[in-house]
UniProtKB/TrEMBL annotation:
Its EC number is 4.1.99.3. GO terms for molecular function: deoxyribodipyrimidine photo-lyase activity. Signal peptide: none annotated. Belongs to the DNA photolyase family. It comes from the Bacteria. This is Deoxyribodipyrimidine photo-lyase. PROSITE patterns: PHR_CRY_ALPHA_BETA. Residues 1-127 form the Photolyase/cryptochrome alpha/beta domain. Keywords: Chromophore, FAD, Flavoprotein, Lyase. Its cofactor is FAD; (6R)-5,10-methylene-5,6,7,8-tetrahydrofolate.
Length: 469
């Protein structure tokens, strides 16, 4: 009897403990991907990107003589039915850590055990399990630096190779067709605009990692803050779907460090930020949905999406170039430079006094590297409501930030077309991507600020002081 490997956001063959263990049993292996409520609930861009990833992964399995069976419905129903149909002896999967997945997986495990089937979950989508790092008092870390001190000494097992064989069952269970799922339906700007920026699958991800450690890591510590420079790994897109494992990135970083490459430790620290986000989400899942610090419930956030300022922010016409450049980069490429994520977030939550949840949701709609833990932590950090957050009174000035981090305007010129004699192709592509009803044109003059930098800062600080924070 076969082993079912339930594939989720772990679209890789190498360093995949569940596939590895299934292969090691010597039994036939049936990989299955399930379109359940968690998939249906994704934002437009992550769902579209997931569809591309699943298609690509199915082809990688096919190249090994295996298949990816697609089914839709509640995971517990799909898996119990599959076990009955195939007579499977076990179901294996890689652990996920967001509360929705944990809840679902707990139910699946119980139902499978009731059927007398082996149900096994494996570690490997994180460097280490979120419960395995503890403070001296036995609690979880709420501050990054001590977390990093603990993390850096943690033993990260060497990545596993891809399974040598994935024996096929005598007959494959029926599956659905990916096209029928229409995972790209909400992604109207999809194929034409964002696709050229996508790097799909395990091999591309390994290529990115290789190129990063070969040529970018040495200057990473300095260059990672400059959005006009291609100085970061861009691996978040692949990490978010598990097309590469964090352990593979970690060990490549460690090797680079041993070779004396300057920025390697900073890279490891960034991987640890991802880990910290998961650590926080695991121990305090409300970070996804409400102010992590209770006292922020009293803050007078605007939560009305219809507000003119919110529209201007989403449509990237706030009149602040660094902010608009970032939002346009995200709309066109499905990603945004980390420095600029902080700037657009600060402008929304401080200058515009809007709830960070509005920004969190818009990022979830637009990012191809969307990650529940990193996105929530990022927004609460920017807003000041999260653990180890930037204090609310530290309002980023998007003009001086631009002068500091984009001194030659390479970034804003790449993304802002208005007022330029010969705008870049990227800047123009934004206008091809957006809906006509937004009424924007590259030929228009660049808009005035919806809220001026100084005025917004004063308003934010007085709202903060009035609340007696
Ligand atoms: P690199 O600089 O090459 O870093 C390597 C890896 O480290 C990244 O791929 C990522 O996995 C991890 N990492 C780096 N910085 C962070 C960070 N601050 N927090 C957590 N992990 C980090 N990242 C996402 O992956 N998905 C999101 O949805 C997301 N939303 C964000 C929202 C806000 C408001 C902010 C401020 C940050 C957000 N980040 C998110 C974190 C960060 O911006 C991206 O991980 C980074 O820009 C990805 O680019 P890169 O792969 O080139 O990173």
């Amino acid at each position: 009897s076969p082993i079912i490997v339930w594939i989720r956001r772990d679209l890789r063959l190498s360093d995949h403990a569940a596939l590895h263990a299934a292969s090691a049993t010597g039994r036939p292996v049936i990989p299955v991907f399930i379109r359940d409520a968690l998939v249906d609930g994704l934002g437009a861009a992550p769902k579209w990107r997931l569809g591309l990833g699943v298609d690509h992964f199915a082809k990688s399995l096919a190249a090994k003589g295996s298949r990816l069976i697609l089914r839709s419905g509640p995971a517990v129903d799909v898996l119990t039915a599959l076990v009955r149909d195939t007579g499977a002896a076990g179901v294996y999967w890689m652990r996920a850590y967001d509360p929705g997945s944990v809840d679902r997986d707990t139910k699946v495990k119980a139902a499978l055990k009731d059927l007398g089937v082996e149900a096994q979950s494996f570690a490997g989508n994180l460097l280490f399990e979120p419960w395995s790092v503890q403070t001296k008092q036995g609690g979880f870390y709420k501050v990054y630096t001590p977390f990093w001190r603990a993390a850096r000494t943690h033993d990260v097992p060497a990545p596993l190779p891809a399974p040598k064989t994935l024996p096929a069952p005598q007959s494959w269970p029926q599956g659905e067709a990916l096209e029928d799922w229409h995972l790209g339906r909400q992604m109207r700007r999809g194929a034409a605009v964002v696709l050229p920026y996508v790097q799909l699958g395990e091999q591309a991800a390994q290529g990115r990692l290789g190129a990063f450690v070969a040529s970018k890591v040495a200057d990473y510590a300095d260059q990672r803050n400059l959005p006009g420079v291609d100085g970061t790994s861009c691996l978040s897109e692949n990490l978010s779907l598990g097309e590469i494992s964090p352990a593979q990135c970690w060990h490549a970083g460690r090797r680079a460090m041993e070779e004396g490459k300057q920025g390697a430790e900073t890279f490891l620290k960034e991987l640890a930020w991802r880990e910290f986000a998961y650590h926080l989400m695991w121990h305090s899942p409300h970070i996804l949905t409400s102010n992590w610090r209770e006292e922020w419930q009293a803050f007078p956030w605007n939560e009305d999406e219809r507000l003119a300022e919110v529209k201007a922010w989403k449509q990237a016409r706030t009149g602040i170039r660094f902010v608009d450049a970032g939002l346009r980069e995200m709309y066109v490429t499905g990603r945004m430079h980390n420095r600029v994520r902080m700037i657009v977030g600060s402008y929304l939550t401080k200058h515009l006094l809007c709830h960070w949840k509005i920004g969190q949701a818009w990022f979830e709609e637009c990012l191809i590297d969307w990650d529940p833990a990193a996105n929530a932590m990022g927004w609460q950090w920017v807003a000041g409501s999260g653990p180890d957050a930037s204090p609310y009174f530290r309002v980023f000035n998007p003009v001086t930030q631009r002068e500091k981090f984009d001194p030659d305007r390479a970034y804003v010129d790449r993304w802002i077309a208005e007022g330029r004699k010969s705008p870049s192709a990227e800047a123009l592509s934004y206008f091809d991507a957006i809906p006509q009803r937004w009424g924007m044109s590259a030929a228009n003059p660049y808009p005035d600020p919806v809220v001026a930098v100084d005025e917004g800062r004063k308003r934010a600080l007085s709202a903060y002081e009035n609340k007696g924070f």
